[in-house]
Structures are given as C-alpha cells and as structure tokens.
Amino acid sequence: xxxxxxxxxxxxxxxxxxxxxxxxxxxxxxxxxxxxxxxxxxxxxxxxxxxxxxxxxxxxxxxxxxxxxxxxxxxxxxxxxxxxxxxxxxxxxxxxxxxxxxxxxxxxxxxxxxxxxxxxxxxxxxxxxxxxxxxxxxxxxxxxxxxxxxxxxxxxxxxxxxxxxxxxxxxxxxxxxxxxxxxxxxxxxxxxxxxxxxxxxxxxxxxxxxxxxxxxxxxxxxxxxxxxxxxxxxxxxxxxxxxxxxxxxxxxxxxxxxxxxxxxxxxxxxxxxxxxxxxxxxxxxxxxxxxxxxxxxxxxxxxxxxxxxxxxxxxxxxxxxxxxxxxxxxxxxxxxxxxxxxxxxxxxxxxxxxxxxxxxxxxxxxxxxxxxxxxxxxxxxxxxxxxxxxxxxxxxxxxxxxxxxxxxxxxxxxxxxxxxxxxxxxxxxxxxxxxxxxxxxxxxxxxxxxxxxxxxxxxxxxxxxxxxxxxxxxxxxxxxxxxxxxxxxxxxxxxxxxxxxxxxxxxxxxxxxxxxxxxxxxxxxxxxxxxxxxxxxxxxxxxxxxxxxxxxxxxxxxxxxxxxxxxxxxxxxxxxxxxxxxxxxxxxxxxxxxxxxxxxxxxxxxxxxxxxxxxxxxxxxxxxxxxxxxxxxxxxxxxxxxxxxxxxxxxxxxxxxxxxxxxxxxxxxxxxxxxxxxxxxxxxxxxxxxxxxx
Amino acid sequence: xxxxxxxxxxxxxxxxxxxxxxxxxxxxxxxxxxxxxxxxxxxxxxxxxxxxxxxxxxxxxxxxxxxxxxxxxxxxxxxxxxxxxxxxxxxxxxxxxxxxxxxxxxxxxxxxxxxxxxxxxxxxxxxxxxxxxxxxxxxxxxxxxxxxxxxxxxxxxxxxxxxxxxxxxxxxxxxxxxxxxxxxxxxxxxxxxxxxxxxxxxxxxxxxxxxxxxxxxxxxxxxxxxxxxxxxxxxxxxxxxxxxxxxxxxxxxxxxxxxxxxxxxxxxxxxxxxxxxxxxxxxxxxxxxxxxxxxxxxxxxxxxxxxxxxxxxxxxxxxxxxxxxxxxxxxxxxxxxxxxxxxxxxxxxxxxxxxxxxxxxxxxxxxxxxxxxx
Lengths: 694, 374
What we know:
The structure holds 2 protein chains of 2 kinds.
Chain A: H1 12-47, H2 49-60, E1 61-66, E2 73-74, E3 80-92, H3 100-111, H4 115-127, E4 134-137, H5 142-151, E5 158-167, H6 175-178, E6 181-182, H7 186-191, E7 204-205, H8 208-212, H9 214-218, E8 222-228, E9 234-241, E10 249-250, H10 255-265, E11 270-276, E12 282-288, H11 293-296, H12 302-310, H13 332-341, E13 350-352, E14 355-358, E15 361-364, E16 372-374, H14 376-381, H15 385-395, H16 397-406, H17 428-435, H18 441-448, H19 458-470, H20 494-509, E17 527-533, E18 555-562, E19 569-575, H21 585-596, H22 598-612, H23 616-631, H24 641-650
Parallel strand pairs in A: 2-10
Antiparallel strand pairs in A: 1-8, 2-3, 3-4, 3-5, 6-7, 8-9, 11-12, 11-19, 13-16, 14-15, 17-18, 18-19
Helix pairs in contact in A: 10-21, 13-15, 13-16, 13-20, 15-18, 21-22
Chain B: H1 11-15, H2 18-38, H3 47-65, H4 69-97, E1 104-105, E2 110-111, H5 113-131, H6 144-159, H7 163-179, H8 184-204, H9 208-218, H10 228-241, H11 252-255, H12 267-301, H13 305-329, H14 347-373
Antiparallel strand pairs in B: 1-2
C-alpha cells in the first residue's frame, strides 16, 4: 500500500472534491461547445448568408432555353412548305445518365420502343458527346409524354419536353428543295459555342435552303426559369420569356405543283423543273426519289441508312443540282438556232438515208431507214440526226457552242444552293485545254445531238426552254425577295424563233416524236422537244438503251413550254435511265396539265399511284416496314450515318464529273419514239418498256 | 420550493420536473412543426408519429423515474449482460442474413440494442466505480475492468458497423471514468495515444465509406455530388436561412429534396432554413436548460457517488447526441448517423433519450428523498 514515496490514502472526500472540480471542467467544455455551435451558426447564417442564399437559389431555380420556333418556308401563295407542329418529345442527355442500360430499358418500356428504335438510340448515345442531347422519341402522344414525365425522377438524364418540331407537309416531295434540319453535332458546336445548340429539341439546318437560310429561320430562343427538385423534376415555372420565331422565307415555288410533279415521277428516278418564263420564277424543283426530311430530323438510324444506301436510284442525290446528263436531242432546237444565225435557210434540206458518211466513217441516224428529204422543221420534229450532222459540219462547232451557252447550257445560276454542277458545253478550245487533244469531227457530231462531252443539268434545260419560249434571257429565281432580272432579249430574230418554235409545236401537235404529249385541252397547246441520251456505248447494251440493266438504259428527256401561242410556263423533265424520251414526255404533259386544270391532272395520277403503292410517303413507309421485317436489328452499324447523309445530300463540289463514263467516241443515237402509229405501244405506265426499234 | 406548492395534485406527479418536461415538450412540438413542413404540409408520416413517440416514451421516462436506486444498481450488470448478448445476436443474424443489420425484430418493434447500450454502459460504469474502494481509484483496477466493460460493446457496435453509436457509447463511459477521479495523466496519455491511433485507425480500421466521410468532412467541396453533397447542402440550408429564416413551409432546400435525410439526421438544417438563426438559438437554449442547467445540476446535487456518476454520464451521453449532430450539420464534424434528440424523427433515439431523462428524474427524486430523510 505504501509503495510510493508519498503514500496518500484516498478518501471519499477527496473523490468528491475531484468530482466537483471535474464537473466544472465538463460543464465548461459543454458550454464551450454550445458557444462554438452558436458562433458557427452565426457565421453561416449571418456572415455567409448572401453566399448561401445564392447557392440555394441556384439549386432551386433552373434556367432553361426554349428553342425558338423555326421560321416557315412558304410557297408563292403563302402555303407552308416547311412549318412547325406542336410536339411532345423525350431526349436523353448522355452526361446526366447514371445507369445507362437501366434507364434505357425503362424508357423503352414506357415509350413502347421497338428493338430497332432501341438500337438506333444506343448507336446515337455511343456517338453523342457530353451534353449533346439524343432524341429518344419525337411526336409522342400526350399520354406517353405524361407517362415519361411522371417517371422522370427515376430516370436521371431523361428530359421530356413539349415544344415544336419541323414539319414538311409533303415530305419527300420537297426533300431536295429545302433540305432538312437536325440536331447540332460536335463540329457545329465547335464552330459556334452557343448553349442553344445543345438545348434538347433545337435543330439547325443541315442542307439545302434550311442550311443556307439558317440564320434567318432560326429566331431567338426564349428562356424559362423554373423551380426544380434535386432529381431534376420541374415543380413549377417561375417566369418565361417567349421565344421570337424565326423569319419566314418565301419561295417562288408552287407547293401544289411541286408535290404533283414529285408524285407524278412515280417510282422512277427523275427530275423536273418548271419555270414561269415571264420572270424566271421556279415553280417546281423536284428530284425523285428523295429522302423524307421529316424522318431525318431525329437522326438517321441503321435501317434508314441501309434503305437509302441500297437504293440504286440514289435518293440522296439531288439530280437537279448535282446530276449531269447528256441532254440528247433536246439541244437540237438550240443548235438549229445557231444554224439560222449562221445564215442557213430553214428550207434547205438534206436527204437522210439513215446515216451520213463523214470521212471514212458513217454516222447513223436513230432512224436507220432514213427520213428522206429533211429540212429544219422536219429535223426538229422528227429529230433527224443526219440533218444536224450535215449542217453542223458546215457551220462549225464554235457557233453551235456559243448559241448553246446563250441558251443557258453550261451556265451557273445565282441560286441559294452551295453547290451547282453546271456541266460542259464543249468546243475546240475547251477540249484542247482539258484533254490536250485537237477537236475531231465526231466531237461536232456528238455535240449537235447532245452526246459526248456535252453535259447539262435539268435546270439549264428548263432555262433553255424558257429562253426559247420567251426570246428573252430569262434567269431562274427561287426566292421571292430576289430581284427579278430584267429580261433582256436574246437578240435572236423573231423569224428564227418562229422556225424552231413551229418545229417544237409540231413535235407534240403534228407529225413529231411526242404525239402523246399533247395537252388534254382543245385550246391550249404545248410545244416541246424530246431527247434520248445514251449512257453507254453501243456494244455494252446490245445496242439497245431501252432494255437491260437499269443503269445502262438511256436517259429520257423532254423540254417544253405552254401555251404554244402565248408561252407562260416552261418545263424540263429528266427520267434517269428511263429508257427513252417516252418516259419523260407523259410526265411533262401531266405536270403542264396541272397548271391549267388541277383536277384533270389528278385524275390521271391517282390510278397510277394506286398501282405504284401510294404516294411517295406511303411507299417509303411500306418499304421501311418491309426492311424492318426483313432485317430487324441486324442492319450493320454505320460509322457516321449522319455525316454520310449530310455529305451525300450536299453533293459533290461544283461541276464534278458524273459517275458515268463520258463518251468521247462517236455516239450512235438511240431511237426516238415516233408519233402515234409509229410510236411504241402507248402505255400509261411511266416506265415504257419499248420494244427494240425496227 | 416544495413547501410552497402544496395542492391537490398527488405527490409523485407534483415531484416531476415540469419545467424541464415542458421545455422538452416545446422542443418536440417545434420538431413536429419542422417535420410537418418537411412532409410538404402533412402530419403524416412524421409529425404526428413524432408526437405520439414523445407521449409514449414520456410515460416510459416517468416509469423509469419511479425505480428505486437499489433496483438500478441491481440491474446494472444484468442489463449490460443482456445487451451484450443481444449485440452478439444482432451480429450473428446479420451474418446469416448476409448483410449488416443493427436491430432485432421483436414482434411489435425493431429493437436496436446498441441504442440502449448508451445509457446502460453509463449505468454499468457508475455501478462499478461506486463499488470500487476509493483507495483503488488510482490503481490499474480502476482502469482494466472498466476498459473491458467498454471494449466489448464498443467493438461489437463498430463491427455493425456504426461508428456514431460506438463513439457515443465510448463518450458516456469515458466521462464516467473521468468523473470517478482516475488520474488526470491517464487521460492525457489516452489523448496522446488517440492522436497516434487515429491516423492508424483511419487507414486500417475504418470502412471505405467511413474513410470517405472523414475525407469529405475535411474538404466537402472535393466531392460536391457525392458524400460532400450532404454537408454542402446542409450548410446551404442553414446559411440561406439567415437570421429570421425563409418562413414556415418555405424551405426550398428541404422541399425540393436537395437536403438529404431532411427529417432525421439533418432535421436541424431543415429547421434552420425556415426558422433561421432564431430557431437555432431556441433549440440551443432548450438544450442549455435541459443539459447544462438541469442535467449537470442533478449530478451536482446527487446524494451519493453512484447517482453523481450516473447523472454526469447520462447528461454527457445526451450532450454527445446534440453536439455531434449539430456539429455535423454545420460542417464541423464528419457525417456520422446521429440524430438530434427530440427533433429528429425516429423512435429509437426518442426512446434512448427519454430513458436518459427518466434516469435523471429518478436521481433527482432520490436526492429529494435523501434530503428529506436527513
């Protein structure tokens, strides 16, 4: 017990003293903690109050942009070509996803998405970066929208929204005219660091007019301040600044005609341009088949891409702007004009025996039996090749090329499209420069019948028709606010014009090559010129451009204007690989008919459409269903389908050469259909399967 | 005092510390108001239940206050033993169930033995030191047995794992040991040892989530969307409330669900947002009255060593709840799951705190009886 140096017995009294002392220590400690807590509270609530108030507000209030309503695209009478419709949509923000697979599965269940839709969303999510929204559903019903909204707290990263989406009432009929819109991609965002671009539901113009006039159409976004929970659910809107819709743009297009022309081209690959010759207004600007711009707005799925890529009619190619075609005999009236200007008497004739020997070669007429005595009128309405071979050599290619250019061939027009392929009007200088080869006799021969190096686009053909019809230098015009270029006279004497106009009148209304193109009116006539252009050499297709592989068939052309006595409208129709001009002129006839009597034109179209399986929209939907049934989710993933589509629709740079081989050798013209009786069996089908010509 | 208030109210009821019980009732009502607001203006599921808990466990506290001192001392070790067995059982059931679990379902309620251990360890410690001859208070016999007494339940609770409760148990026990008069330098040495052990424990003993909580406490902004989120949002709630608060039912942090655990561990933040610093000072004031004035006073006035130590330990246990919870919500302590007495929703904590209050009332009664005997 007394081991220590100072053994101190401990008594209860000592313990009581120690307890009292220590309870003061404990009390002090507690009091100190209490004071510390009160101080801390004061620091947070008073000193830092402003700071935390701000943080609390930024928690509570969420500022979101309201995508502006896009400006409408209107036709000449104010009818919408592109409008907006109220829309319920659901987007996914990749960066806000927590459990991607679970959220997707749940969302798929709520929205009743098919495996194909799910696959497309997954593809898009894999490619999307950060806050770039991915559309999971557009054009939802109010019920589905409500179902997603209710579940939103359990679906982080999913943003249901009501807003407006782009709507093209006639779908594929205007695809190549207006382009399409889509969500901004990473490159767009890199170019323009605008938070609007990553606002769900906002679309920018991706092609065509939508892209060219994006700045005008875009508008100013609105903003919405709303109270949100931590889970992102909107409790209530605090205040809203309305968006300012984009400005409308007015086109010279006639929406009804545009749609009719697109539908009338049917299942073929074709293009059509209709112009008002008084002021150059483009009334129809159609390239079919096309894509449906409505279905591109939420991106391009695997199946959609496969459908477009598999189609040998190349729906993504704009044949008016990016297609170049040998025009065939449609250039003959222009060539004849150059003859007249060079002083040729239109009554001077040549005896066509079915061919013409030039040097040691024989150039054939399409009519191997020959046309007999042929003057200029007959040369035009019977499209006699020998007549043109003969006089072209006398007059020379330079004169011919000059007249062709005056009529608009080889010209680039001032239209709001980024690229235009304007083709070639060959002459000796051009050939020397391009190929370092001297001009040969067969080059002249080819050029006079619209073959060889000669390449044009359908717009130029319509312009040429307008200029022939009016005698003025008509320029095409697409925007209503674009100035009308004063129509200067071509400077071609009226007598010359009368000659070729009467020849073209005869093509349709007389002994010419397109008797079935006659308009179904007793008092309105149409004048025109057929053209059948070879795409491959004789030996490749057994010498017949009407049968065989589709891509080896001849192109069918028709240019025309009406009414013949007092021209108002000009039209050019191209049926790519249509076999012959017989594929083109019935289409031109019906389109012209529409301008004078819509009902009559529709009566012709509707039975045909029944045979084809409906309107272009209906046919595309049916095709998609068939693809979905056949391929399901097995379609291969495309690396960058959206960029691929953008590139394909944007087309090649100016005046890139067409994919088909250019014929640099002597062309042998294919048969032009004859007038009634001699013409191949008149079929109402737009794909005439003409028998080999006798 | 007693002489003046003669009335028709029966003696046992008159003896209850009504001022203290009213203060606690007021605090509970205030808590209910906060819970009412947190539930979006509904009595259910929290506010009403909170008041029912109070009434129910107030009866328990009054019952406890009637227990004689000898019964307390008799039951100290048996209670302790039963709770240790239950803690082992919880651990075993948890292991079999394939997960960690803190309670046992005993039919009508979920019993959380670790919760009950908080007052019972204090009881056991007080009993031990009251029995220890004064001469031994400065020998190893004053340290080793209580050390064992504490180590077993503390270890079991840490295993659950429930760091907050284990700390509360330790705190109550250590305060009793301290008040019992063991040498001061032991505590100094203990503190030094703790300073060495803490980093070791941090790296080797803590679970990942616990380690993360400590790290986040040191730097909440390092993990704004993860664990730091709790602390940050709580500070925003308190700070944005200002002096007068945003007003009843106007707390955006709680109503828009930015505040986690707004009805349990973070109820003080929920309250502060709507009632401001005024509300906070009110809560602090009530605890000052109940713990500092009353609890410590009961301990000082206690008639004998056992009662003194018991009262001091019980007060310390309740203090620990309040201090740690409020430090946590204000960003002064890491996030440990400890509720705020009489404010947080939850039956277990209300029960423990009411047992503590009942115990203090019993001690107050004993001292009254012993004075009247003297």
